[in-house]
Write a structure and sequence with these properties.
alpha/beta; five-stranded parallel β-sheet; 5 helices; 9 strands; about 25% helix; about 35% strand; globular; binds adenosine monophosphate
């Protein structure tokens, strides 16, 4: 099994993507390396406090889907997708949140979470924290108990952690 350090080493920093000033943390080389990808799923599994209690893995578009699907192979929990607007076909809960400039919106199928569900939320990168916070807010609104937010990489300088009021588990920081 690869260590989290060697997994992170495979990630590539891409300057000025998707816009000038953003240093994009690209996980695709991790996904393309079988041992690293399998190890990453196992590392996420090990970060769960009570895997047997999780009823749903809530995965954030788009790289969270891949990580959430890999983790779902290890625990007895369904996968729920949080998507950008206009992608989910059935009755949705929408949540609009503030960005530095402007707003963004995320959606979830209302039916996919029931009151009493114990969920974990998963994504690749925690940056400003807005996306993760919006996802937490939607899960709470649908009656879920959030056991934890699990992220591969936290960009500490952006202080996303300050927005998060559920147990936060990051596999690595930069
Ligand atoms: P934020 O809401 O600012 O915490 O942004 C987190 C979401 O945007 C996650 O779904 C990430 O996949 C993506 N993201 C934000 N910043 C980066 C970055 N520097 N590199 C890769 N993905 C990022």
């Amino acid at each position: 099994m690869k260590s989290i350090e060697s997994i992170i080493e495979l990630m590539v920093d891409v300057p000025d993507f998707p816009k000038p000033g953003i240093l994009f943390k690209d996980i695709t080389p991790v996904l393309g390396n079988h041992e690293a990808f399998v190890s990453l799923a196992r590392q996420f599994y090990r970060s769960l406090e009570k895997p047997e209690e999780v009823s749903k893995i809530v995965a954030i578009e788009a790289r969270g889907f891949i990580l959430g699907a890999a983790l779902a192979q290890h625990i007895n929990a369904g996968l729920v997708l949080v998507r950008k607007p206009g992608k989910l076909p059935r009755e949705r809960l929408s949540h609009t949140y503030d960005l530095e400039y402007g707003t963004d919106t995320l959606e979830i199928h209302k039916e996919d979470i029931s009151p009493g569900d114990k969920v974990i939320i998963i994504d690749d990168v925690l940056a400003t924290g807005g996306t993760a916070k919006a996802t937490c807010d939607m899960c709470k609104k649908l009656g879920a108990e959030i056991l934890g937010l699990h992220v591969l990489l936290e960009i500490e300088a952006l202080k996303g952690r300050e927005k998060i009021d559920v147990p936060l588990h990051v596999l690595a920081k930069c």
